[in-house]
Predict the structure of PadR family transcriptional regulator.
Amino acid sequence: MNAQLKKGVLELVVLESVRQRDMYGYELVEEVSKVVDVNEGTIYPLLKRLTNERYFETYLRESTEGPPRKYYHLTAAGVLYRDTLEKEWNELTEKVGAFLEGCKNG
């Protein structure tokens, strides 16, 4: 997938994943990778930025497999931001789809 397209949808996929349930970083990398090919070096800076922008809260939870894990939880502001991104995504895909369809028929 084109890197610019990927970057554009990555925030929405991350926010929606955490909206479904709280996740820790590596778990989130695995979940997002089901939709968009990403690695830890892409996800962790995004998580840090979204946390700094107060769209996520974090907390530690003990792990049976090593040190405690940092979990991400979507805040009310994060839900509103996610909803805004989804609306923008839907409008964009509808317009681009209509444009492409018009080009085929025109």
In short: The chain has one domain: 3-105. The first strand starts at residue 23 and ends at 24.
